[in-house]
Amino acid sequence: MTAPLKRGLSLSALALVIGLVSCTTVAPSVALTGPAGPYIVNTPVTLTATGSPGSGAGLWTYSFSASPACGTFAPATIGPTNLTTVTTQFTPTTQTVNCTLSVTLTTASGRTATASITRTVAAHPIVTSTVPANSTSNVSVTSEISVTFDQAMDPATLVLSCTGEAAGPGHGGPFGACNMTIGSPTGGPTTFTWAVGDPDASPTTNLQFNRAYQMQVTGSSALGLAMAAPFVWAFATEVAPLPPPPSLPACAIVSLTDSVGSGATDNFGPMAGATAGNQAWGYVQGPSDSILRLMAAATGTPSNCPGGSIACDDDDGASYTPTSPAVLPGTITSVSVFNSLLGNAAMTASTNVWTVNGFGGGAMANYNFFGHFTNTDFTETEPNGTIATANNVPAVPNWRIGGSITAGDVDYFAFTAAVNDVIFVVVAPDPSFDSVIQLRSSTDTLLVSVDGGFSVDPEGYAVRLTAGGTYYIRVHHFSSTGTGSYRLTACKQ
Asked: What is the longest distance spanned by two Cα atoms in the chain?
């Protein structure tokens, strides 16, 4: 009886063991893998999930999520399925240092397993603005360079370089080698400034005058993502200020023989001793078509009238051929009807200057320039219709005589000159007075006669006298019956 009993117990124990084994289950599992970061905003990446339902029966589902909400999945859910390996596309949308990407495997019975990876999501930094801005002209030569990015940057990665340099004006190149020193960036986290220097600048400034520079910047964001490409831009600096024009003597004749190139302007003045309210008298004499302007300040830009002037003239001069001992000053051999003459123009400041350029900005041949101002008024005394009764010109400098002409009247004014004195004479008539102005010898011989304009137009001449002695300025109306008043000035040197 003993042996059967033992056999029964052994079978029971075996059954218990088998029951216990049949009740053991295997948990579901899942793993998630993907490329190393950082991930780039709006650039999809493929993630792979590998899972098992364990001992569960039936199909299972994969669900994908991101925390914080730094992107989207396509698809976000896969299943129910019996696939042990699946893929999804993750598209980053928001920059963040830590983006946690997760997958959850859920079995048919509701059991779950989760796996996660963490990546940085970043965007390629871009330049949003620069100072100076791209294609900017007239940039100050004292400027520094500033760059603003769309996100915080790592200063240690920023590199600013000058990739080209060219003569201005304009900023389109072609560019040659650039000679520029560049300091370390300051500021941040998004805007950085570099001190720069051009060793060729004279006077010593950050940049050269009238120069085009092409710049480039590269770098990486604070999240470690580099710019997709270098940012390149160019700008041009301001034109160098004009040098001070040659000043004019207080008694107002300056006789220069010069030429003006195409697109250029000559500047003269200011006139020593002149003040606001004085009268300016100027003359361009030579064979070319000229523009004469009285300006508030010197300019390098040629212009036809009015050209931003206080007063301006084009073509009020007259052609004339003087008779010896009166000759043309300097090296010019002819006087054009296109010469310019200004008379009795009201000055606005002591710093007013004269500018001369060719008509339409064109080149001019050699010319003489005469400038004068008046500040003391006199009135003619009748009778002065002959050389015997001529008024003497005032003994003071910078004089202006007021006179009038009746029907058949002429006015004479006497002055003395030395050999090679240059005499500059201008008459400014009032409205309706068509004036004629002459230079006559001590014997009343005609040496110069000028009648180039119409009523109101000033008349004038400038000659060098090859003999000393007494000379006469004569003023009369073009018509023997004409009348009117005028202002007259003259100066010699």
From this structure: 183
β-pairing, 60-67 vs 77-81, is: antiparallel
Adjacent-strand bridge partners of 416: 470
DSSP 373: E
Buried b / exposed e along 429-451 (16+ C-beta atoms within 10 A): beeebbbbbbbbbeeeeebbbbb
Asked if residue 356 lies in contact with residue 290, where contact means CB atoms within 8 angstroms, the answer is: yes
Q: HSE of 45 in the Cβ direction (CA atoms, 13 Å)?
A: 18
pLDDT by position in tens, the chain (length 493) = 444 444 444 544 444 444 444 456 899 999 999 999 899 999 999 999 999 999 988 999 999 999 999 999 999 999 999 999 999 999 999 999 999 999 999 999 999 999 999 999 999 999 999 999 999 999 999 999 999 999 999 999 999 999 999 987 777 778 899 989 999 999 999 999 999 999 888 777 899 998 999 999 999 999 989 999 999 999 999 988 777 666 666 555 555 556 787 888 888 888 888 999 999 998 988 888 999 999 999 888 899 999 899 999 988 778 889 999 999 988 888 888 888 989 899 999 999 999 999 999 988 888 888 888 999 999 999 999 999 999 999 988 889 999 999 999 999 999 999 999 989 899 999 988 899 999 999 999 999 999 876 667 888 999 999 999 999 999 999 999 999 999 999 988 7
Residue linked to tokens 């003071």: 396
Q: Rg (Cα) of the chain, in Å, rounded?
A: 47
Q: Which of 297, 302, 310 is nearest to 243 (CA)?
A: 297
Which run of H or E residues covers position 8?
helix 2-22
How far apart, in whole angstroms, are the C-alpha atoms of residue 336 and residue 454? Answer: 17
Gap between the Cα atoms of 116 and 100, Å rounded:
7
Other Cβ atoms within 10 Å of 163 Cβ, number: 15
Q: How many Cβ atoms sit within 10 Å of the Cβ of residue 291?
A: 28
Q: Rounded to an integer, what is the distance from CA 234 to the centroid of its chain?
A: 12
Instruction: List all residues 6 or more positions away from 456 whose beta carbon is below 8 Å from its beta carbon.
Output: 429, 430, 431, 432, 433
Residue 49, phi then psi, degrees to nearest 5: -110, 130
Please, what is the end-to-end C-alpha distance for the chain in angstroms?
Answer: 162
DSSP per position, 254-301: ----EEE-TT--EEE-PBTT--TT-EEEEEEESSS-EEEEEESS--S-
